[in-house]
């Protein structure tokens, strides 16, 4: 369908223009003086002064001593700004987007090979749609809009025209989508296509070379041991480090908020605010469904934040709007490099006591930060009405971050994929299908969803020779009330090992040596269908060398050896040469 979106278009000020304004705010200068001070050509100085004159920030006066330039009152006020505000105009742009009707994912129309019903090949197999509506506030839509370097996205809901219903040609071979989808296609869509194609005859649809080559490159980064964080106290040190390293902005999304934890972090928040860092604190739920008595009004956390000095309080904002999300995310721009850092994992940084086993992963992929920020913006949008101040502030930040991400290539030895909601189910079946030796799953809760979401696919993996290990902390309240606590013996008979670990809150899935998913998703209890908001569960799937080794070592250390998924050392082979020697002697 055709989609319109509004952009702000305007010229950004150059560093030379800003320096000239600062100089003219303190004293008047003639053209020869400015040329001498800057060492720049006359023509360059003249062009910069013309732009400042048009903005009414600089005035020119002719006296007996000569012609002089000086800053106006408005110019002097602007000279004190760290960044000069751009002169912007609004324009409406149009783009053609497609939403797949299997998972509700969005794509640019020019990145798919589309065909209408009348042009379908004679033997084409058409997958029946599952979705019949679309969400105009979907955070992933904004990532597809084309923006030039001098443009930013306005905080308005895109306007969708009446849709048509073409088909997309996709090529599947050996249980893998070979062509037809761009690289940013979610894992859940690829799995849905593969499942639908299992009973389809081999039909060559003749995809063009264009369809096979379209799509952006995958997200990439090189993750070190410091970027895989395991343990409670380690996460407290991590969030302190985030506040210390933030340059201009830090966004933290925690599912729950506790005044006690906010008070514990208050000194770190204050130090960041004193450096003029803007802190946005977002949250998902008032209380844990497993512990309804833990409900504490957000107003209590606001009271704690109000203890900050009055001059700093405006820089720290706790969103009044629930996101409805279970995700745990930290985003900030690093002081030393200016690049954005993303942290995703299991730790509720605004409610944790930092004494349970947690797991998070840190990445410096700029495109990943853009995707996460887009989902956070979508979680702050009302069903109707104008955007909240939080959403507008994050939208302005998103526009700048996206421009920055366009200039930084994605490099690294690890390939990264963002997991959202039902992508987690697809990740489990993907592990079942591609793992060669072993699969390990860990999470906090074991609930009613465990049977269908984990045990059934993992039983199949065990039947085909893979070693499956499951770890959890506690059975869900609903499961306990029904008297259906996990039975390790019964599960072991199905070929899997399951173990309960106290104070275990980490949520991860690993297979073999080079694939790891760390997330907010309780693999064995959460159900993402139904009325939950989009982006309610977010995680990262990372593939590359040494991931398992790093994570396993840290997990064993954090758990005191209770969760040891390190590869077992092989016993030295028995020397049987004496048998041959005896045989020869005989």
As a percent range, the share of strand residues is 15-25%
Task: Evaluate the radius of gyration.
Answer: 28 Å
- Tell me the CATH architecture of the largest domain: 2-Layer Sandwich
Instruction: Output the CATH topology of the largest domain.
Output: Endonuclease, Chain A
* CATH C-level name of the largest domain: Alpha Beta
Q: How many domains make up the 3D coordinates?
A: 4
How would you describe what is shown here?
The protein is an alpha+beta fold. It has 4 domains: 77 residues, Arc Repressor Mutant, subunit A (Orthogonal Bundle), CATH 1.10.10.10; 129 residues, no CATH class; 190 residues, Endonuclease, Chain A (2-Layer Sandwich), CATH 3.30.870.10; 123 residues, Endonuclease, Chain A. It contains 17 helices and 28 strands. The strands form 7 sheets. Strands 12-20-28-27-26-21-23-25 form an 8-stranded mixed beta sheet, sandwiched between helices. Helix 8 links the parallel strand 14 and strand 15. Helix 1 crosses helix 3 and helix 8 runs parallel beside helix 9. It is globular. The termini are far apart.
Keywords for this entry:
globular, Arc Repressor Mutant, subunit A, 586 residues, 23% strand, 4 domains, seven-stranded mixed β-sheet, Endonuclease, Chain A, 17 helices
């Amino acid at each position: 369908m055709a989609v319109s979106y509004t952009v702000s278009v305007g010229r950004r000020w150059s560093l030379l223009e800003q320096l000239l304004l600062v100089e003219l705010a303190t004293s008047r200068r003639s053209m020869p003086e400015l040329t001498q001070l800057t060492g720049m050509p006359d023509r360059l100085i003249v062009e910069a002064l013309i732009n400042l004159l048009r903005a009414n920030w600089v005035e020119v006066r002719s006296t007996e001593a000569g012609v002089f330039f000086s800053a106006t009152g408005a110019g002097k006020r602007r000279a004190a700004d760290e960044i000069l505000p751009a002169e912007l105009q609004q324009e409406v742009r149009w783009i053609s987007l497609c939403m797949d009707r299997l998972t509700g994912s969005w794509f640019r129309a020019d990145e798919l090979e589309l065909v209408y019903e009348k042009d379908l090949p004679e033997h084409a197999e058409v997958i029946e749609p599952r979705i019949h509506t679309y969400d105009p506030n979907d955070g992933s839509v904004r990532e597809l809009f084309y923006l030039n370097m001098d443009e930013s996205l306005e905080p308005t809901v895109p306007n969708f025209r009446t849709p048509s219903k073409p088909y997309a040609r996709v090529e599947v071979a050996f249980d893998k989508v070979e062509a037809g989808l761009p690289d940013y296609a979610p894992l859940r869509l690829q799995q849905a296509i593969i499942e639908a194609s299992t009973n389809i005859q081999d039909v060559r649809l003749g995809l063009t070379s264009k369809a096979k080559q379209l799509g952006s490159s995958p997200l990439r980064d090189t993750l070190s041991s410091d970027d895989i964080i395991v343990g409670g106290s380690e996460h407290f040190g991590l969030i302190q480090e985030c506040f210390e390293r933030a340059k201009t902005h830090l966004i933290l999304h925690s599912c729950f908020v506790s005044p006690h934890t906010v008070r514990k972090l208050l000194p770190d928040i204050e130090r960041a605010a004193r450096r003029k860092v803007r802190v946005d604190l977002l949250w998902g739920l008032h209380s844990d469904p497993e512990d309804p008595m833990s409900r504490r009004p957000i107003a209590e956390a606001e009271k704690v934040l109000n203890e900050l000095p009055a001059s700093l309080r405006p820089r720290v904002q706790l969103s009044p709007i629930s996101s409805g999300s279970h995700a745990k995310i930290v985003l900030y721009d690093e002081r030393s490099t200016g690049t954005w850092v993303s942290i995703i994992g299991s730790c509720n940084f605004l409610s944790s006591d930092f004494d349970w086993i947690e797991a998070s992963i840190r990445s410096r992929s700029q495109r990943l930060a853009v995707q996460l920020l887009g989902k956070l913006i979508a979680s702050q949008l009302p069903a109707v009405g104008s955007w909240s101040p939080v959403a507008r502030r994050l939208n302005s930040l998103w526009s700048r971050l996206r421009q920055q991400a366009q200039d930084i290539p994605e490099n690294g030895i690890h390939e990264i994929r963002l997991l959202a909601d039902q992508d987690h189910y697809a990740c489990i079946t993907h592990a079942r299908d591609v793992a060669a030796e072993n699969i390990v799953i860990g999470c906090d809760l074991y609930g009613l969803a465990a049977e269908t979401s984990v045990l059934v696919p993992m039983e199949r993996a065990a039947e085909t020779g893979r070693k499956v290990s499951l770890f959890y902390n506690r059975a869900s309240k609903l499961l306990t009330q029904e008297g259906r606590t996990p039975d390790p013996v019964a599960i072991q008979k199905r070929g899997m090992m399951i173990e309960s670990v106290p104070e275990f809150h980490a949520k991860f899935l690993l297979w073999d040596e080079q694939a790891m998913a760390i997330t907010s998703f309780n693999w064995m209890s959460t159900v993402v269908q139904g009325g939950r908001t989009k982006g309610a569960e977010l995680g990262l799937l990372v593939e590359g060398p040494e991931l398992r080794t790093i994570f396993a070592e840290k997990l064993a250390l954090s758990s005191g050896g209770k969760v040891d998924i390190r590869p077992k050392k092989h016993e030295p082979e028995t020397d049987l040469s004496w048998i041959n020697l005896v045989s020869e002697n005989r």
